[in-house]
Amino acid sequence: MESLYSLINDKIKENNKVLIGISGISLSGKTTFANKLKGLYQSNYSVYVISLDENQDVLNESVDNINPSKYYYENAYDFGTIKNEIEEAFKNNDVVIVEGLLIFKNTVNINFDVKVWLDCTFTSSIERSSEDKKELYEDYFMWLQRQHFSIDNPKGKADIIIKNDKVLENEAEVLVDFINNPSSVNKMKWLYEPTTWEVRKNGIYVESDKITDFWQRTHYGFRNDNAHMLYMETEKDFTMTTKIKFNPVNQFDQCGLVVRIDEDNWLKTSIEYERGNPPKLGAVVTNLGYSDWSTEELDKQVDEAEFRISREGKDYKIEVNVLNRGWKQLRICHLHSSKKIVKCGIYCCSPIDNGYKVLFTDIKVKEEYF
C-alpha cells in the first residue's frame, strides 16, 4: 500500500491532480477499495469517485445472445460517457477515482495516471457471491473475465497490484520438485509400473514395456490403457512441468505428461517417435471414452523436450519447449468429468515393442491459485 500512496502523491505533486483507475475481477473489492482511498485523501484534496454502471438491460441482452460473455464484453459500458464524466469531475476535484470491470481494455482510451489491479482468485469471487448468483459468477462472469485476460492482459497493465484475497496471502504449495527436493517424488506412485525403472541422482529412469499405450476407441477402434504413469493425486489447480531425455527405438515410442481422472477421461502430451521421419509433438484429450489427437510435426530429430500442463478448474493449457525455442502453446482443452481429484504426472510407453529408454530429469508440480 505504501508504494501506491507514494505513486499517487508523486502524480499529484507533478500535475496538481491525479486520475486513478481501479479494476479487478468481479467481487474483488473495487468499490470498497475506491471508497477507502477517497477517505484517505479527502481531508487534503477534493475527491470524486466514479463507479461504472453497466448499460441498461445489457446483462439480459447478453444472456440471450449466442455468445453471452463476448456480447457483454463488447457492450457493457459506454466509455465515451465515462470520459465525459471524468472531464466534468476534474473541474471541481483534484483526485478522480474510476472503479469497475473492463476499464483496462485495449480499446478504452482513458489515460489513467495510476492503474491499480485488485488481485483476487475466481474461487474467492464465487464464494463472495450470494447463493442466488453463484452460478452467474462461476460461469458467465468467469468466462467474461478470462476473455478480458486473454485479449487485454489488464493485470499486466497495472502500476500497482494489491492482493485483496486471503488465499493469495499464503505461498503456493510446491507439491513435487525433483531438483530442489528429490524426496518429494515419494508422494508419487505407479499406475502400470514398468518392469525396469529407478530413481537416479539426475532423474527418473524408465524402460517402457512393449505394447503399452493410452488410447480410447476413436478412429483406430482399439482401447489400450496400460502406459506407465508415475503420478500424485490432487484436487488443486496446478502447473506441472517435466524435462525429458530419450532414446526412441520403435514406431510410436512416446513420453511426456498426463492428467487422468479415470480410464475414460484423461489427457496426455508427448513427443512421439516416427521411424524414418522427425518426431511429432502431440496432445490427446479423452472425454467420455473417446480420444481426440492433435499433432505438430518437427523439422528435425531431437532427443530431449520439455512439457508443461496448467490446470484451471476443468480447463487445461498444454505447452511445449523443444530445440530451445521457448514455451509454445500446443493446446487448450477441457475435461468434462465433475470429479475434482485428478492424477497428474509423467508417463512413457511403447505401443509396438520394448527398448525405449527415458530419463525424466526434472519433475515439478506447483499449486496455482484460480
TrEMBL record:
Any Pfam family: DUF1349
Superkingdom in the source lineage: Bacteria
InterPro entries: ConA-like_dom_sf (IPR013320), DUF1349 (IPR009784), P-loop_NTPase (IPR027417)
The protein's name: Uridine kinase
Species of provenance: Clostridium gasigenes
